[in-house]
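Two quick folds needed for the group meeting slides. Do the first one here.
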Amino acid sequence: MAPGGQDGSFQEVSEEFRPNSRNLKPMEIVALPRRALSVRQPWAELILGGQKSLEIRSRPTKVRGWVQIYAAIRREDGPWQLGAAHDHGLDLGTLQRGWLLGMAEIVGCRRVSPADSREACFAIPADQELYGWQMANPRRHATPRKPSGQPQPSFFFVD
């Protein structure tokens, strides 16, 4: 699936993105997806760095395909965030917030268990019904972008 929302909408073509997806030709230049996913730090950084392949949410998603990764402005210094930042050598205080930092492909969604903790970059509790949005092929923007629309807690659209 090429980058873009399920509605087939795309942003202007940019030569800085050449994702390696099984559905794209190796040198095909692709458009930026209009759909963005809001993710708090350090999770956004870990997704774009390829260390986090499961974005944990309380609800499943049917969305598949490319999304831009927006690092949410709200800072949360809970034990899971602090632990993940420490384990990966990140300083929560210096991570960018309020920017579209890159993009990744949502390739699936499934219920998760404590056995999925490594892919999620934190200890998944056994007593909660949680879902892992499977993230693949992360690509960092050469230059972070400010979103044109109003960021929302989950998905939102950008121009």
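Then this one, please, same format:
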Amino acid sequence: MAVNNKFRRTNERFGKTSSLKLPQQGHEAQNDEYGKEHKGVIECPECRNVHFEKGWHHSIWALNKHLKQEQKVARRELCRACKITRDHLFEGELLIAQWPEQHREELLNLIHNFGELAVKLNPQHRIITIAEVAPNSYKVATTENQLADRLGKKIKKAFNHVELHFSYSKEPYKVDRVHATFHHPSA
């Protein structure tokens, strides 16, 4: 009975029970890549991208043009993509194996063009590195996990005889790995 009285007093104090918000537990932390939203414009001193109202823009000029009003930079802080690059980290990894030498230039051009398009669409989606790790095998690192997935699918669509395997790591790192293997056609 005492529990019911205590519960009733809580209801009287806070209205209904759902209005009481408890702090999150450690394992329930929000997966928010930008943290708490701040007022004003944040500019990255490295790449000059600006963050405003939960969105990234290529520059303060592009933001002002988009909004049709002038915004001023409130503070400067390294953006997430620049932090990932600086710390030699990645969220997406594409491993390309057994690639035929005669298609090397086509593959590298496709990767570069795909990366340029990704940056145009979202300035935080970048290809960090393209490295030849063995003869005819490449490793592509990206700042965004889904970028590696989309790039792998684009390679499969552009070239015949490519097999893809996807693997995903668990929180807190959320790294996507895509293995693209070229299978030579049987003669």
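Slide caption for protein two: Helices lie at 2-14, 60-67, 80-86, 104-121, 145-158.
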